[in-house]
Amino acid sequence: MHITGRLAAAVIGCRLLSALSSSRLRSTMAEPVVFNKPKIELHVHLDGAIRVQTILDVAERRGITLPGKTVEEMTSVIIVKEPATLTKFLGKFAEYMHVIAGDREAIKRIAYEFVEDKAKEGVIYVEVRYSPHFLANTKVDPIPWQQEEGDLSPDEVVRLVNEGLRQGERAFNIKARSILCCMRHMPSWSMDIIELCKTYRHQGVVAIDLAGDESLNCEAFPGHRMAYEEAVRCGIHRTVHAGEVGPPSVVKEAVEVLKAERVGHGYRTLQDQALYKQLLAQNMHFEICPISSKLTGACDPDFTKHPVITFRNDQANYSLNTDDPLIFNSTLNLDYNTAHKYMGFTEEEFKRLNIKSAESCFLPEEEKRELLQKLYKAYGMTRSTVF
Ligand SMILES: *[C@@H]1O[C@H](CO)[C@@H](O)[C@H](O)[C@H]1NC(C)=O
Ligand SMILES: *[C@@H]1O[C@H](CO)[C@@H](O)[C@H](O)[C@H]1NC(C)=O
Ligand SMILES: [Zn+2]
């Protein structure tokens, strides 16, 4: 941006700050906030972003005994503190998913509270993802988390989440949409997922995702490929977790076979320079999750060597996201602080990547334009000064 643009940004920034001083952007968290401006988040799991207090409340109401009785105790059971393996990380969900799954009130509540938490972080638009099957206890095979069979189907789970998100949007004045996840180890669920995406595409569901163990590729599991083909046919947006711990070939498959429009993580793309150059040229969007990538063992724990530094230096199209703030005991601001402190991210870059995130979001064109206008205004930019 030019000097004049920067001055204008400073002036508008000040006005914005005073206008917002009493509002949600004033964080109550202990850590300093390096980018206290409206943000976009595109990669965060609903079931990895639950309040610990809510888990305790619901467990008490349902008479479920947990290994911790207080927020502190339960937090230390759930969180991953040191770089772990993906298996260990995935095991963390088993500590609490049985409390929330199958419970209508709890599912609506976690969606509502999620929106409140995002609003507090200064997020103005979020796409939150989850597997409806993991929260159901009927019409799902096998029934997850060792629940007894009940009467809550994946379809009703989606309706409950939609409702919780919508109530949260109204209460906290931000926009929240959802992405439904297929699971790599459960290809038989994937056709349900695409049908749910189609049914609820005008009620908050914007895309399909594929999550889980990347060693299970799609050659061997045609269920995912068929679901993604149907998504293409119906104009349902597509993202895929790929190249987080899996090799660049998983990224290639995501883009070429599943026709992903965004890549979840994608760090290992850098191991195949030809593929990386091709995706850069295509303006492929990478959903980067810094703290997550350290604690799952996906990336070198030394943040100064993080792949996102290469993405930034190449002015790639990417976003910064939390992934699973419950399990990493993190917040979006902590991810931004990390990028600032260890990777030299500047205010200008934070603005740029949020503009890219908005451009890459799965809203309809008209709403996307509105969202971009909001960001330009908040960042003190006019269209002509945009990167
Ligand atoms: C979780 O994060 C909070 C805020 O950064 C910190 O005060 C707390 O000690 C952390 N909890 C654990 C168990 O590490
Ligand atoms: C960034 O990537 C997304 C998804 O591929 C795309 O829709 C968007 O247009 C890209 N942004 C730019 C500026 O090309
Ligand atoms: Zn993820």
UniProtKB/TrEMBL annotation:
Its EC number is 3.5.4.4. Its cofactor is Zn(2+). Gene3D superfamilies: Metal-dependent hydrolases (3.20.20.140). It comes from the Eukaryota. Residues 1-30 form the signal peptide. Belongs to the metallo-dependent hydrolases superfamily. Adenosine and AMP deaminases family. PANTHER family: ADENOSINE DEAMINASE (PTHR11409:SF43). One of its GO terms (cellular component) is anchoring junction. The keyword Acyltransferase does not apply. Keywords: Cell junction, Cell membrane, Cytoplasm, Cytoplasmic vesicle, Hydrolase, Lysosome, Membrane, Metal-binding, Nucleotide metabolism, Signal, Zinc. GO terms for molecular function: adenosine deaminase activity; metal ion binding. One of its GO terms (biological process) is negative regulation of adenosine receptor signaling pathway. It catalyses: 2'-deoxyadenosine + H2O + H(+) = 2'-deoxyinosine + NH4(+); adenosine + H2O + H(+) = inosine + NH4(+). It is a peripheral membrane protein. Its main location: other. The gene is ada. CDD domains: ADA (cd01320). This is Adenosine deaminase. InterPro entries: A/AMP_deam_AS (IPR006650), A_deaminase (IPR028893), A_deaminase_dom (IPR001365), Ado/ade_deaminase (IPR006330), Metal_Hydrolase (IPR032466). It is found in: Cell junction; Cell membrane; Cytoplasmic vesicle lumen; Lysosome. Residues 38-377 form the Adenosine deaminase domain. Pfam families: A_deaminase.
